[in-house]
Specification:
about 400 residues; 11 strands; globular; binds nicotinamide-adenine-dinucleotide; binds magnesium ion
C-alpha cells in the first residue's frame, strides 16, 4: 500500500489464538493504517478469542464448535462487542473466501486447514501460508486452485519465506534461476543426545525447541525432523521443484533461514534473528517491507555459523519426504495424516517418542492411496480420514 489515503487491507486470520496467529496480530498492530482485522477464528481457546475480539473488534469471529461459538457470542454481546460469531467448519471457508477480504493468514495447524485454504485460493485472495500441512495434503490440487483463482500464495514458513525472498519476482524466471535449494534445520532439542536415550523423551522435552517458540505439534515435528520432511514437500509445490533439487542441512543457530543455489553457482541466503514476525511482515506487505518488531542481527555478537549433514539414524523421518514424493500420488497425504495422529498420541502419553516416526513408516508401507487419476479435494480428505482411522487403531492397540 503506497498511499496513506488507500483503504486498509482486510485480513482474515485463521487460527488467530496460536503462535503464528498472535504474531500476526502483533505485526498488524504496528500498521493499523495499512491493515484491518476482518475475521478471527480459533478452535478451543474461547477466552483468548474473546480477548482478541474485544481488542480488534473484527466484523466476524468463528469457532468450529457450535456450543463454544454460542457462548462466545453471548459473552461478546454482554460487553457491547458487535462481532458476529459463526460456527461449524464451513464458517472458516466462508470467512476465507468472503468478498470483502484481501488477505487470509492460514495459521491453523494440520490438514483441517485445507478446506479454508482452498476456499481462499479459489477466490483469488492473497494467501499467507503458515499451515504447511494443508499444502502437503493438497499438493497439486491446492496449487491448481491457486492458479485458477489467480490469487497469490506467499509462504510464511521461515525457510520458504527465505527462498521466496531470494528468488526473482516473476515465477516464470524461477526455473532458470534455481539449481537447487537448501533448507536449513536447527536439528531440534535432540541433535546431540545419544540415540538410545530418545526412547525416553517426554512431551515436555520434545516441545522445548532451542531457538523458536511455537505450537506443540510443530515443536514435536521439529524434534523428529518430520517438520523438515513436511517442508521438503511444501517446497516442492511452492517452487515447482524436483525432489532432487531440495536439500537439507542442519544449521543449529537458525540464522540463515534457507538458501538458493543458483544455476551460476551463486548462493543466495536470507538471514535474520529467528522471529516469525519477519516472514509474516514480508507476506503482509509484499513486495514492500514494513517494520516487523523483530530485533536486528548483530553480526559481531554472532558465534560460529555451523552446518552439518542430517544423520539418517537419528532422524529417519526426514528421509520419508523424498520417498513419499517419489511414490504414488497421495502418499504425502498418508504421511501427513499418520504423523498428525502419531504426534497427538505421543503428546497424550499413548506411545513412546520413537513410535512417532515408526508409525509414519508403517503407514507409508501399508496404506495404499488409491486415488482417482484426477483427484479432488474430497478424495484427499477421504484418504486423510482413512489413514487417521488406521493409524489411530495402531497407536491404541498394535504397538510398533
Ligand atoms: P498453534 O497450535 O500455536 O496454533 C494453532 C491455531 O489453529 C490455534 O489458533 C488453534 O485454535 C487453531 N486450530 C487448531 N486446530 C483447529 C481446528 N481443528 N479447527 C480450527 N482451528 C484450529 O500452532 P502454530 O505453531 O501457530 O502453527 C500453525 C501453523 O503454522 C502450523 O501448520 C505450523 O506448522 C505452521 N508454522 C508455525 C511456525 C511457528 O513458529 N509457530 C513456524 C512455521 C510454520
Ligand atoms: Mg519452518
Amino acid at each position: 500500500m503506497t498511499h496513506a489515503t488507500a483503504q486498509p487491507q482486510k485480513i482474515t486470520v485463521l487460527g488467530s489464538t496460536g503462535s503464528i496467529g498472535t504474531n500476526t496480530l502483533d505485526v498488524v498492530s504496528r500498521h493499523s493504517q495499512q491493515f484491518e482485522i476482518f475475521a478471527l477464528t480459533a478452535h478451543a481457546n474461547l477466552i483468548a478469542l474473546e480477548q482478541q475480539c474485544l481488542q480488534w473488534r473484527p466484523r466476524f469471529a468463528a469457532m468450529p464448535d457450535t456450543a463454544k461459538a454460542h457462548e462466545l457470542g453471548q459473552r461478546l454481546k454482554a460487553q457491547n462487542c458487535t462481532t458476529k460469531v459463526l460456527s461449524g467448519p464451513q464458517a472458516l471457508s466462508e470467512l476465507a473466501a468472503h468478498p470483502d477480504v484481501d488477505i487470509v493468514m492460514a495459521a491453523i495447524v494440520g490438514a483441517t486447514g485445507l478446506p479454508p485454504c482452498m476456499a481462499a485460493a479459489q477466490s483469488g485472495k492473497r494467501l499467507l501460508l503458515a499451515n504447511k500441512e494443508a499444502l502437503v495434503v493438497g499438493g497439486e490440487v491446492f496449487m491448481s486452485a491457486v492458479r485458477s483463482g489467480q490469487g497469490q500464495i506467499i509462504p510464511i514458513d521461515s525457510e520458504h519465506s527465505a527462498i521466496f525472498q531470494c528468488l526473482p519476482e516473476q515465477p516464470s524466471e524461477w526455473a532458470s534461476t534455481i539449481d537447487h535449494i537448501v533448507l536449513t534445520a536447527s536439528g531440534g532439542p535432540f541433535r546431540t543426545w545419544p540415540i538410545e536415550s530418545l526412547a525416553s523423551v517426554t512431551p515436555q522435552q520434545a516441545c522445548a525447541h532451542p531457538n523458536w517458540v511455537m505450537g506443540q505439534k510443530i515443536s514435536v515435528d521439529s524434534s523428529t525432523m518430520m517438520n523438515k520432511a513436511l517442508e521438503i514437500i511444501e517446497a516442492k509445490w511452492l517452487f515447482d521443484l524436483a525432489p532432487s533439487q531440495i536439500k537439507v542441512v542442519i544449521h543449529p543457530q537458525s540464522i540463515i533461514h534457507s538458501m538458493v543455489v543458483c544455476t551460476d553457482a551463486s548462493v543466495l541466503a536470507q538471514m535474520g534473528t529467528p522471529d516469525m514476525r519477519v516472514p509474516i511482515a514480508y507476506g503482509l506487505a509484499y513486495p514492500q517491507r514494513i517494520a516487523s518488531g523483530a530485533s536486528q542481527l548483530n553480526l559481531l555478537k554472532l558465534q560460529d555459523l555451523t552446518f552439518e549433514a542430517p544423520n539418517a539414524q537419528r532422524f529417519p523421518g526426514l528421509f520419508l519426504a523424498w520417498q513419499a514424493l517419489d511414490s504414488a500420488q497421495g502418499t504425502t497425504t498418508v504421511l501427513n495424516a499418520a504423523n498428525e495422529v502419531a504426534v497427538a498420541a505421543f503428546l497424550a502419553g499413548k506411545i513412546p517418542y520413537p513410535h512417532i516416526v515408526q508409525l509414519n513408516i508403517r503407514a507409508m508401507e501399508h496404506i495404499q492411496p488409491e486415488l482417482p487419476s484426477e483427484p479432488q479435494m474430497e478424495d484427499l480428505l477421504a484418504l486423510d480420514k482413512r489413514t487417521r482411522a488406521i493409524v489411530s487403531e495402531w497407536a491404541e492397540h498394535s504397538p510398533c
